[in-house]
Structure formats: C-alpha cells, structure tokens
Amino acid sequence: MQRINLSQKAEKKLLIFLFTIVPVSLLLLFSYYPLVKMFQYSLTDWNGITPDPNFVGLDNYRTVLTNPKYFSVFKTSFYYFIATFFQLGIALLFATILSFKVKFANFWKGILFFPYLLNGVAIGFIFLYFYKGGGTLDTVLTFFGLEDQIQLWLGNRSINNISLAFTSVWRYTGFNFLVFLGAIQSVNPEIYEAAEIDGANQWDKFRYIIVPSIKKIIFLNIILGISGSLSVFDIPYIMTGGSNGTTTFVIQTIATAFKYNKTGLASAMGIILLGIVIVVTVVQKLAIKEER
Amino acid sequence: MAAFNEKYPDIKVEIETMTDYAGQMKTRMNTEEYGDLLMLPADISPTDFELFFEPLGDKAELSETYMGLNDRSFEGVQYGIPTQLNATGMVVNMKVFEDAGINEFPKTPEAFVTALETIKESNPEVTPLYTNYSAGWTLSNWDFTRTGVSGDPDVTTKMAEDTAPFEKGDTLYTIYDVLFQVAEKGLVEADPTTSDWEQSKLNLANGNVAVMVLGSWAVPQIQELAEGHEEDITFQTFPVTAADGKQYMGVGGDYNLAINVNSEHKEAARKLLDWLVNESDYAVDNGGLQPVKGGDYPASLKASQEAGVVLIEENAAPEGKESLFSDVNNMSELGIGSTDLEKQRIIDAAIGNSKETFEEIMNDFNQRWANAIKEVSGN
Q: Is the Membrane keyword given for this protein (chain A) (predicted)?
C-alpha cells in the first residue's frame, strides 16, 4: 500500500476538517435543521400531527404580537431579572473572599458550585418540599419561633414568583461564582503585592483592582442573566406548572404547542423569543466593542 | 400476557410503556414506527384517522357488540375500540359524610356545598374536597362530568355551536360554579399549588379528604389504600339532578386501542386487540365497564346503580362535525377536558389570589368560545 504524502499544511487542514466535522454535523442536525423546520412550521397552522397543514403566512406572528395575552407573561421574567443582580452580587462576594487566602478554599468552592451540577428537575422537587405547607422552610421558621411569618410560599400570588426566583438564584449562583473566580485569579498577583506595599486594605483591592479588571466579565454575566430570565423554564414548570401567575413565555409556548395543538403558533413564539435573545446579544457585543 | 400466549403461542408480544404517553406518542407518530397495536392518542383529529390507523370495521356492525365507539370513528368506519368505559363523577369516602351526620350523598349543588360545610364544621381537620390543583390533569375531570350533569347525550355537540355556553344555567356554568363556591368557602386544600396526587389518594382512603372529582378507574386504586374498610370508598355522580328529576352519570371510552396502518403484523395485532377487549380482565380490574355490551358492572359502580343513577353515553357528533368541538376548544384555548389552566384560574379567583369574579371569568369564557367558533367556521 502506498502512503499518501501530504504537505504539512494540507495535513493540518485535513485534521482540522476531520475533527470539526463531528461537532459541526451535530450542530447542524440538532440546532440549525430544527430551527429551519421551526421557521417553516411558524408559517403554517400545523397542529403537530396532520400531514398537510395550511400555509398562513405571517398570521401567527401577528397573533402573538397583537394579542396581549401572549406578551404579558414577560412580566414574570422581571422577577428573575431582578434576582439576577442578587445572584451576581452573592457570586462576586464569595469569589472575592475565596480569591484571598482562606482555609479549606476548595471545600467552599465545591459547596458553592454544587447546586449548579444538580439537575433542574431534582432542584424543583427539593424546593417544592422546601416551600410546601408544613415543609422544611415552615419547620425552620417554627423552630426559631417565627410561626407568624409562615406563608403559602408558592400559593400566595404576591410572593410565589419571588420564591421561584430565589430557587433560581440558589441554582445559578455557583456558575457565576466560578466565572468570577476564574477572572479574578487571572489578575497578576504582583499587583496585589504592590497595592499592599502602598497600604491598600482588602476593600481597596476589591474596588480598585478586582472590579476594573473583571468589568467585562461582570457585563457578560448581566447579559447572560437577561437572556436567561427571558427564557426561564424548568424551575417554574416543575414546581407550579405555570399556574397561579407563574407562567413564563417558554411555559406558555409549550402549552400552546402540546396542549392546544397549535404547533404553528408556538413555533412563531419560539422564533420571536430567539429574535429577542439575538437583539440582547447584539447589544452586548456592541457595548463591549465600544469600550475597546 | 401469559393468558394471551396460552391461546396464541406463536405471537410474541413486546410491551413498551411511556411515562408521558400523550406527549411522546404524538411526536413518534410523525414517523412510521409507533408500534403495531397502540392506544390512540386523545387529540388526533378524526379526519386524520385513516392516515395513521387501520380501519377495524364498520361502525354500525361493531356497535352491536361494543359500547363507547363514538369518539374514534369517522364517516362510519371504526378506528379504535376502547379498553374500558369509565364513568366520571366523585370518589367519596362515605364514612366522612356519615361522621358529620350526612347519610345520603347530596343530589343538588346547594345540598352538596352545605354538606361539605357541615363536614368542615364537624371536623376542621378534614379537607372536604381535594382539587389536586397542581397535578395538571385532575381538574379536567370536572369537564368530563358534563354529560352526566346535563343528562343530555348531545351536550358536547350542542356546545360546539353555542356561542354562549357559559351562561347561568348552562351545564358548564353549573359545574364551574360548584368548583368556585367550594374553593371560595375554604372547603378545598389550604395550599392548592403544592397539592400532591399520590398523597391525596391516601388522604381520601384515610378519611382526611371527603370527596375528589375523578373517573371510576380511580376507585380500585383508592380502595386498595383503604385496606380493611374498602366499603367506605364509593363512587357517586356529580350532585346535580337533571330537569326530568333523574340523576345521570356519563360514561365514555378510555383510551382506544388502534392498529398502526404501517404495521407489518396487522393480523397478530388484531388478535391481541380482540383478546384484550373481549377476554381479558383489564376493564374490571381498572374499575371500568367492559366495552362489550352486557358485561358486568364493576363493583365501583354498583352503589350508584342501586341509587337509581342512569348511565348515559354521549352520542356521536353528526357527520361533518366530528372534529368541530375539539377545533373550537383548541382555538379558544379553554382546554375543556384537555388542560387544567382555566380551572386553576377559577380556583385562584375563588381563594383570592386574583381579583376576578366568577361572572367575569364566565363572560371571558363565553367571549373566547364565540370568537373561536367564528374563526373555526371561517376557515
């Protein structure tokens, strides 16, 4: 058998091609192909089963954008958006503390990151029992003699979204924490030493060294938080099923597609959400560019 | 299955189960591989039957032997046979009623609400009616009681053309009104949002809950939990007496068995289907009526049979209107018999989570229903 001789450059190209073909084809098959299909469905009145749906043009988009019923659910996202800031604050606080010398640092890091590794369904059930009448939270409050503070954490419409947003904070803080910690640790330690010699205390170091050097990462996390809060799904879906004013846009899309069999309309809702997320991302890209 | 193989030793049956049958099956039906014999998913439009399922025979002929054929036929051809017929009504722990001094199950909505209030007063620990608000499918049973409540086998067909079916005095108004009143008077679970289906069955069996609105299939499950005092658990019709002074209880087919039109083993599948509906104990074990005419009443329904409740089966929609109700229902997004969201809305309003009044909700329902009829007929 004759060996095919390739120039080093061609070999490199071939290797890159072969290595990327797997992820790219997966991406095309599971992301772009469904997206194209979904766009196609969104122009029809398909009910999810029938083989010959009617073409309805942009009617579905008109329905979603003109009927306040479909858009008003974005106010639920507001709770999660506000929660994002608490989440970032807590994550930044712990990331800063743990970037200094702390005993058992890896242990604490593990604890903080652990919730992010848990499956969303499991978290939903844990917190369902936590908030339930007579559940963990109520028991703890009773133990401290705070019985009069007990509420229907998920049943009371004025606080149930806060309860759910708190669950989301608990889950995602670990992720933000890790991103922040990575960014903080990439700061050259000599700068801290220099600052110490100049007499800076911990707060000064945080204020004048850490924050400026990870500004971009903070901004990135805020953007992730915004697009995340627009597409909240698993926690409210599992814990309340979107009942009692906790519906989010994604839960509503699922109901439209699989409960009312309006797959065409739901596809249009999906495309609209995609559009909004793209806009947010573009704004982020532009803002970061300007800084440079 | 062992019993089936005794009769047909050459047919090898592989059973596949799914946790979210209704959801996953619809997706699978976009391919050709959806089993040989399957449960016909509930929301397939009758016009599409012939594309997916093998015809099982002439409806008129089959209806001499079987009951409950109406929902799964199209233009006189039958595509599915129900595994069993269920009645929809209330699973009741009669002991709780008797402890509160009520010896007979109420027959009118007013008496029913009063009875639940009496129960609550005599024992505040008891939840008179458990809604199973958060389970996501249980509240639909309230909708299924409509045939029995109206005593009219054409109630669904009529609704599909009524532009105001939620007026005071209408069937669904009456049903929802009971739900609203019971919730408003605090006769349901304290925190509906965290209700728990498995726990609720146990509570009903133990007498911590008095009533749940369900199908008759639930009775054996709850009796099993009420070991030693099974006779306390009975099945009653929705507490309404129809205009002619009689009480009715609606029965309808459960999931229908159907044969995949793309199947390579149609004959074997047909043998299994026939065996399941004709010979197996599936229906009786599950608290339902056998689809074969003249079959035994299950123990769960004997109590109401003795009380003189008339079982009533819905008539088929007239030709050309087979899918009208489901089209209007989907278009309006009211989810009658298919989703729980709008029933949850009624409970939310009743327990003060939202400021809507019952009349406002009913007006909204009427409006959405009327608009949906307009849109569907426009197409």
A: yes
